[in-house]
Amino acid sequence: MGAESAVGRTGAAPAEDSVDRHIARWTGKVPFDVPTEAVITRIQLLAKHVAHGKERALAETGLQAFEFDTMHRLASRGAPWRAPSAELAAELLLSPAGMTGRLDTLEKSGLVRRLRGAPDRRRVDVELTDEGHRRWTEAMRWRGIAEAGMVEALDDGDRAALAALLKRMLLKVETR
Hints:
By secondary structure, the chain is mainly α. The protein contains 8 helices and 3 strands; from the N terminus they run H-H-H-H-E-H-H-E-E-H-H. The chain has a 3-stranded antiparallel beta sheet with strand order 1-3-2.
């Protein structure tokens, strides 16, 4: 990011945030690297804001997190938003019994339907209903609003630069 980004668009020093106050409070009391502390603490706080945005999206749509997660997995497959229940259970790290309970709840709410396989009646596919897809789409819209609000302080170049820096950090920890 260029000097303009570091200082702000007006040329004035950026406002103090909660991390600046955190660092000032702890400086000299415990040993830490200030730039590292600033980066990590800001990432942690931003992650909390992302989680709050997700919670609001669920509240606005009347969905529970497990419902959204299941529907999200189905929606990721594209129309007709269908997957074998065993595959969904594996992706969601659920036991067969846990998956059954989850699907019972979603089916009673009219968000998914179960379809028996014709050649193999033991196979059960799960499909989003139109209402399930509508509610998932609405939750995604609310999440998008929250996420856009977080990054609107950055122009396109800043967003690209930040994404590249965060990717470099993530690749470092993922390839250890």
